[in-house]
Amino acid sequence: MNTSSSTIGVERVRSFCCYRLDPTHDRRWADFVDRHPRSSVFHTPDWLRALRRTYGYEPTVFTTSPPTGPLRNGLVFCRINSWLTGSRLVSLPFSDHCDPLYDSQEDLDFLIRYLQSTVEQENWRYLEVRQVNGSQSIVPKDALLAATYRLHVLDLRPNLDEVLRRLDKDSVQRRIRHAELAGMSERCGRSDDLLKEFYGLFVITRGRHHLPPAPYAWFRNLVQCLDEALEIRVAYKDETPISAILTLRFKDVLYYKYGCSIARFNRFGAMPWLLWRAIVSGKSMGATEFDMGRTEEENVGLLTFKNHWVPQPRRLVYWRFPDTPSPNTVNGWKLRMAKHVFSSMPDGLRVIAGRLIYPHIG
Asked: Class for domain 157-287, per CATH?
């Protein structure tokens, strides 16, 4: 068994000791993630490998479990070293959520205290944790509530007819039927051609929002690292690609991670149709939940769209210690200025800007 762990054990409390391990090489992490009930696709070694390949982030797990035994807990972070936005520990960059995995509150309390001292001793600007239904029980007293989001998770346990019946009749059911009547066609898989079509639509969509796209290498590395756990679906109208989604699968959960479209074709209902096609496929492979990803509370349009699928979303809480404002916060005048700059750029320049900027904003 490969257990490339090292003791960082100056601090001991009631026989506790903290260890670090590389989750992409220590086989215990993959086994632990597979069996823990709160784990997600974002905890997996494959997801962490894609982050490291694309952005150079080093993934690290902090645990109270010694190298010679099975893991009982773990908090996974990426170390981000940026000359532009500072050095920090984030759990995890470009990931909607990443709950701490633990069973004992005592273990977790120790790990949080240890991480607080590590941030100070190693001169990190801060550490950030991204929780589903964030519990105050793990938040340090002097932590900052960095952001809150909504997480829409659709229950796929009922039969398909019942799942469809629960969706909004006008905004979802009717649009799915309209797409079918409009003669949409679909291709799905992980081929280079599909990835290029997806990315072309993704660049257009980000440009519509006056923002740079994530690097093409990020999606290529996701395809290579996650392999069969990833699927791209592209919708065509008369052989023209007009909408696309990228989904992930882990255990019994299907994840909608990215979506994009050409706005003038939205009247055909291709996006709801693609999502429904993904649900049908996922359910046939045993999925019991459809995670539709995080949504900013101020993004009224996207929030309304997802509310038609899941009327009562969960809450995502991002907290940061110490209470330092994020160097990559994009709101207020900074966001308006950035959008103004990006709005005047051609797509090619926005793609280059994305390659340069994204490693610093995880």
From this structure: alpha beta
